[in-house]
Amino acid sequence: MAMQRNELVYIGNRLSQKGRNVTSIDTLSRLLESEGYKVYKASSKKQQVVRLLDMLSVIYKNRNIVDTVLIDTYSTKGFWFAYLNAKLCRFLNLNYIPILHGGDLPKRLENSSKLSKELFGRAKINVAPSAYLLYHFKKAGFENVVYIPNTIEIKNYPFEIRKNIAPKLLWVRAFAAIYNPMLALKVLENLLSKYPQAELSMVGPFKDNSIETCKAYAEKKKLPVTFTGGMPKEEWLDHAKDFDIFINTTNVDNTPVSVIEAMALGLPVVSTNVGGLPFLLSNKKDALLVPPKNTEAFTEAIEELLRNNEFTQTITQQARKKAESFDWESVKEQWNEVLGGSG
Question: The pTM is what?
Answer without folding.
Answer: 0.87
